Amino acid sequence: MRPRALRSRLLASAAVSALLALPLTALAVSPAQAATASHPFPTHTAYKVGVTPSASQSTRDAAVEKQYDSWKATYLVHGCASNEYYVSTKGDGDAPNNGPVSEGQGYGMNIVPLMAGYDAAAQTEFNGLWQLVKDHKDADGLMQWQLDGKTCAYTDTGTPDSATDGDLDIGYGLILADKQWGGYTTDAKAWLANIYAHDVASDGHLKCEDDGPSTDTRPSDHMLDHLRAFAAYDTAHDWNKVVQRTEAVDSAFSAAYSASTGLLSDFVVGANTSSPKPAPADYQESQPDNIVGYNSIRVPWHMGTDALLNGTTTAATAYGLATKESACLKAEAGGNPQNVYPHTKLNCTPYSTSDQAEEAGDSVGPAAMAAGDQAWTDAIWKQLGTNPFGDGYYGESIKTLVAIVMAGDYWNPASATAPANDFSVAVSPSAGSVAAGSSATATVSTAVTSGSAQSVALSASGLPSGATASFSPASVTAGGTSTLTVTTGTGTPAGSYPVTVTGTAASGSHTATYTLTVTSGGSGCTAGQLLGDPGFENGSNPAPWTQSSSLGFAPVTASSTDEAAHAGGWLAWLNGDSAADTDTVAQSVTIPAGCTASFSYWLHVDTTESTTTATPDTLKVQVLSSTGSVLATLHTYSNLDHLTGYAQHSHDLSAYAGQTVTLKFTGTETDANGGTTDFVFDDTALNVS
């Protein structure tokens, strides 16, 4: 990847300051006592348009946390004073000695408050970032755009000036902090007043820097979601005028130069006229400023984010541009986000294919979401977990912010209140049958539906006489699960009873229904084990088991030094072929009415996958109806469940008494990460009593 240049005046990077090696835990920033976060991560946001990645919410949250940990450890460093932090430009050479630029400082002041709650030191870090800004203002009261990493002295030639992108992000960060912790209102409004006075031209369009001409603009500064938040927060200035003029410039430019692609060039001249146009090739930087370059790769990110937060009516201009940009860049890349090139002509053909950078594809993520393109969204989300071109500060900072947006954790500070906390409750299976004097179990699942996770206390009502219910645990944090056990007495009357499971939290209560069927005690259930060939000792023809493999390898196989049986000479071995594969082993069985039933097996999982978070390889254990419909997924194992030997697992199937069901193991390997996983099981049993 070729390092991005911020301006033609850019200085070469020198050696990394020894300060960068200081651990964050050793820093001497001493702000006021940290306040409680009003929007602790993860604060899940229901966007107003589009789709989210197909990965589960918990998986997306975990990916953000992993990316944040990496970004923080690499780029958030101690400043040149004991109470300062700055975002290092390590890996990109944007300032001497990997020092800060105002753009990076703004990224940090957005990222850190969004991660408060996950990062207990977030307010300390934010205060340190803000302190460095305050200590290095130019004559207009805005941050000097480029500082040395050792001395924090201004390093560009001439009188210190600011850059509009950094100014805007710093202002937005102050609003985020004020909504997150409170106490930043005066600073935020003073900063926005300085932006309005010096970065906004008289007609309302954004200049490129505070001391720059009033005829040009940089589309990557057109952070419309920021400007709308400014308008809601700072009513002393006409930010709606800035929003409207920004949208007018972008619409007029696109109509004339990119009607089908929506792309905007790195710099635009004539922004104060009705006919804005691409800047000359080397207008401000040593790259073609008249096409998409390392500045305007950020436009789909900003346009998509505005559309997601504000919808197709309020953010009609951003939504229209984002959908066009997403479609054209997907076509340019052939659906592979690595092939979104940092330099692209306005007709959406590559200017150069020799230069690649992950941030070009990452930045399209919010636009793909707003456009509702699920496959393209998923491809970009998958890329966020990699760094194929070795991106440094610029790409990794953009990636962190894009990941927060794509995960659904990017909340809107223009809203005066935090999203209401809420949750849901579900029970699986939703019904169970027991003989009087026996017990049944089910899994109670909770999920965060808005706001933040809260403690949920569980209870049950509607039980028949002589029956009791217990939960393990009795309360969970929303997103967690509990095991419900319903125990009947020998005198519990036969019948069907709708049991109401209630979850109660500070936000209110939600319920789910579990239907309990009680049969008369002493029904004559004969205790026994019902599965045929439970240990697969019938060998290569393991009837009544059936088996299949998409690669043509029979899962039931002889014990060997590679995989030994738990007992006997045969076992079932699913996947582990270092190739994409789906293997199944299944058996149908009738569970007599009035019986309690327990299904068990011994399982060994080993893997060569190196990931500690992704689950490319899975084993589902399911109960199917006589028609093949899935009645319940008893458990899903993955490469993360590997262990050195066999472990026994069991599941209560009493709910299916009186039914003929199929017990099915399905192993799926994607071969997406290059590793492979073996799912081996043996000595199954279905015991009834």
UniProtKB/TrEMBL annotation:
The keyword Transmembrane does not apply. The keyword Hydrolase applies. Residues 1-28 form the signal peptide. Keywords: Glycosidase, Hydrolase, Signal. InterPro entries: 6-hairpin_glycosidase_sf, 6hp_glycosidase-like_sf, Glyco_hydro_8. One of its GO terms (molecular function) is hydrolase activity, hydrolyzing O-glycosyl compounds. Belongs to the glycosyl hydrolase 8 (cellulase D) family. This is Glycosyl hydrolases family 8. The lineage of its organism: Bacteria, Bacillati, Actinomycetota, Actinomycetes, Kitasatosporales.
